[in-house]
Every structure is written in C-alpha cells, then in structure tokens.
Write a structure and sequence with these properties.
This protein has 152 residues and is α+β, with helices and mostly antiparallel strands. The chain is built from three helices and nine strands, in the order H-E-E-E-E-E-H-E-E-E-H-E. The strands form two sheets. Strands 1-2-3-4-5 form a five-stranded antiparallel sheet, covered by helices on one side. The protein is globular, with a radius of gyration of 17 Å. The two termini are 27 Å apart.
C-alpha cells in the first residue's frame, strides 16, 4: 500500500502533530537545520550550512507524551528512526510515519514471544502487507510491551 507522500521533514512533523492531537498527546520538537547541525552530516566542514547541491538539510527529533514512550527522529534523507518503549526501528520511510504511529496508538502493535529459542519481538503492522519487526531484549520488556504479548 502506498502512503501519502511527505515531501519534507516539516511535513512529517506536521503529520505527527496531527496524530498527537488525535490521540490527545503532547509533543516536543527539536529542529536541527543546516549541514553542520544534522546528525548524519559529520563530514560537513566548519560553517558549512548547505549541502553541495545547495539544499538546506532539516532534521527533527519529536518526543510524544503518554504510554508507550515514543520518539521519532526524522532525517533529511526521507527516513526516520522510531523508538517505542526503548525498541528502535531504524530506516522507516518518512511516508510510513503516520501509519506506523497510528498502528502503535490504536493497539495494532503487539509483542510476540517464543520459548525456544527465547525471544520477544515488537511487531507493528501497517495497512497492506507492510510490517515492522524488532527484537526486544528481556531486560527491556516494559509493562506496555508485556500487555500486548502473544505467544507462539
């Protein structure tokens, strides 16, 4: 399934803001603008603000209140890192952010565990056939993660 296109970091932050309002959460946003400020531009020269193509990279870090704890780091390269209760989902396409967050907050996300080999995974299904799955260490199993557990 294709998701609505979010052409910029600001468009992604606006979409996250709408979801926060929909679910009654507060959010804080930290913006880093310029090649010398964004986290993936470690090789940018001193006082270098724009990329070689003349664009001004924009990165944002968003924290959402409530349970589960969620933070989103939106990168200028059209992807994001979403952390849900200390479980990191790297390289989530920026266009998938709204569907991912709605899945988490609407109760579609769940954990799945196995006895052998032992392990738990946080699974976030999105509309269509898109699913994100990350390993949860036993020490990081929070009450929210445990509440949505399914065994196999």
């Amino acid at each position: 399934m294709t998701h609505p296109h979010l052409p910029s970091t600001e468009a992604a932050v606006t979409a996250i803001r709408e979801i926060a309002a929909e679910y009654g959460m507060e959010m804080t946003v930290t913006d880093d603008i310029g090649a010398d400020q964004t986290s993936r531009r470690a090789s940018a020269g001193v006082f270098t603000i724009v990329d070689p193509d003349g664009s001004l990279p924009h990165e944002a870090f968003v924290e959402l209140s409530g349970v589960p704890t969620v933070s989103v780091q939106v990168f200028p390269e059209d992807d994001a890192k979403i952390t849900v209760d200390n479980v990191e989902f790297n390289d989530v396409p920026r266009d998938s952010l709204p569907a991912f967050l709605r899945s988490v907050y609407s109760g579609l996300a769940y954990t799945k565990g196995r006895f052998f080999p032992p392990g738990h995974w946080l699974i976030v299904p999105l509309p269509g056939d898109e699913t994100y799955k990350e390993l949860v260490t036993l020490t990081a199993l929070t009450p929210w993660l445990s509440s949505g557990a399914r065994s196999s």
